[in-house]
Amino acid sequence: MFSCHSITFLNVIQSSTVTIFDSFITSIKGPSGSGKSTFLSFLNGTKSPTSGFVFYKGKDIASMDIIHHRRNVTLVEQKPVLFPGTVYANLTIGLQMQQKEIPQEKQLQEYLEDFQLTVSLQESIYSLSGGEAQRVCIIRCLLLHPEVLLLDEPTSALDESTADQILQYLMKTHKLSSMNLIFSSHSEKLCSLADKTIVLHKNRIEDQP
Amino acid sequence: MSDIEITRLAIAYIFIVLLYFFMKNRKIHQEMLLLIASFRMTIQLVLAGYLLGVILEVNNPIVTLTTVLLMEIFAILNIQKIVQKKMSSYILKSVIVSLSSGTLLALCFFLIIVVNPPSLFDPRYWIPLAGMIIGNAMTGVSIGLKTLLDNVEAKKDQIQTLLHLGAEPKEAIRDSINKSFEAAILPTLNSMLGMGIIFLPGMMSGQIIAGSSPITAIRYQIGIMLGITGSVSLSIFIFASIVWKNFFNEKKQFIS
């Protein structure tokens, strides 16, 4: 699905060839500041490597319609970013941007329940905790039904039991749909759930079976 | 109209002296700025008066248009000073294009269609009207630019998130652009609201003191207010339409 060739980014990242396979759950492991977030940004084209190439389905991202690519490969950032307004407005903002059909409120409410959120759709985002905000951000991207969902440290703001439930849900979604999952984490436990792990170690990216 | 005697005008500086001692007494350390500002205001206005006298005397279209061009250049340089932030070359180009095209379009429209002076390039009309139109557009664009830079800095995470969600760059920055437009146009709209009730505008007061009938003065004032609104909105509209590209590269990535 993705293949990266000789990518470098300033003096933070260096790699030879990294391959991310279709239908796999892939984790990117590495300590804080090792460039995990930057690497994820390369995959959806919101950042570019200083040198090297990133291919998606055999095509160089640099030569693709980048907006179309970002709509296929959506990134959930580590720090949850919400917009002033209600939970509903935040869940649907991506759909509005992509001019996609907005699901009925009942369906949105079901998503909230699946993610153990007890908030109402009309609630202001200012009343949400960090963990709740992060889950709203994940749902917001899931609603877009991307081909690939990139998650940057998806459970960093969640307690262990909520994190487990969210992961179970994401695994289920991965199995039921064709959506690929790529997430970054420094948690051994989380990375063990992936089919493949890419390790960022001492500024180098290494493939691990 | 009776002229103000120099000695009587000098007495008016008593307010500056009072303010100086007030600042000194209250330890408000802006005394030097007060002195420099008063000095510069006096020198600049005296020079402008003599220069205007020459321009009116010469009454040459090239001299008139050169003066307007110089006013535009000073306005652009002033925007750089007001914003107090490092401007990229693209922002500077956006300021130059928007301010000059917005003000010149509004000025030409106002002069040719609305005022319709007996002589088209009469500096008596061009210079004061250009001063008002360029000055107000300069304030509008500088407020708009400052608001935009502050807003983009404060909302960089949201802009980046919208890009992650598949938004076009122009869509991702739309909110900041709209806020900048609002901030830029608000002083002009507020001044329209208060005009004639809270304050009498300078141009109208000047015309009345100079002996014009209040009705004539009002006609000019309404016209110039519409011209100012037109130039400010046109300048800031053009500015907003082009400046957003400064924040993105050719790969549609956000560069904060």
The stretches of 5 or more residues of chain B where confidence is low (pLDDT under 50) are none
Largest interface: A-B, 24 and 16 residues
Helix segment count of chain B? 11
DSSP, total strands of chain A: 11
- Rg measurement of chain B, Å: 21 Å
Give the helix/strand class of chain B: mainly alpha
Uncertain runs of chain A: none
N-to-C terminal Cα separation of chain B, in Å? 56 Å
How many domain regions of chain B?
Answer: 2
Which structural category do the helix and sheet elements of chain A fall into? alpha/beta
Total E-strand runs of chain B: 0
Shape descriptor of chain B reads globular
Topology (SSEs and partners):
The complex is a heterodimer of chains A (209) and B (256).
Chain A (H helix, E strand, L loop, with lengths): L1 E8 L3 E3 L1 E4 L4 E5 L6 H9 L6 E6 L2 E2 L5 H7 E4 L10 H11 L7 H10 L15 H13 L5 E5 L7 H17 L3 E6 L2 H5 L3 E6 L2 E5 L1
Parallel strand pairs in A: 2-11, 4-9, 4-10, 7-8, 8-9
Antiparallel strand pairs in A: 1-2, 1-3, 1-5, 5-6, 10-11
Helix pairs in contact in A: 3-5
Chain B lengths: L5 H6 L2 H12 L5 H28 L2 H23 L5 H27 L7 H32 L1 H9 L4 H4 L1 H21 L7 H8 L4 H30 L13
What does this protein structure show overall?
The complex is a heterodimer of chains A (209) and B (256). With 209 residues, chain A is of the alpha/beta class. Chain A has a domain at 26-32 and 66-201: Rossmann fold (3-Layer(aba) Sandwich), CATH 3.40.50.300. Chain A has helices at residues 36-44, 66-72, 87-97, 105-114, 130-142, 160-176, 188-192; strands at residues 2-9, 13-15, 17-20, 25-29, 51-56, 59-60, 73-76, 148-152, 180-185, 196-201, 204-208. In chain A, helix 6 links the parallel strand 8 and strand 9 (180-185). In chain A, helix 3 (87-97) packs parallel to helix 5. The longest helix of chain A is centred in the last third of the chain and has 17 residues, at 160-176. The model of chain A has no long low-confidence stretch (mean pLDDT 87). Chain B is 78% helix and 0% strand. Chain B contains 11 helices and no strands. Chain B has helices at residues 6-11, 14-25, 31-58, 61-83, 89-115, 123-154, 156-164, 169-172, 174-194, 202-209, 214-243. In chain B, helix 6 (123-154) packs across helix 9 (174-194) and helix 9 runs antiparallel to helix 11 (214-243). Chain B starts with 5 loop residues before the first helix and ends in a 13-residue tail after the last helix. The chains are: A alpha/beta (209), B mainly alpha (256). Chains A and B meet through helix 2, strand 7 and helix 3 of A and helix 7 of B.
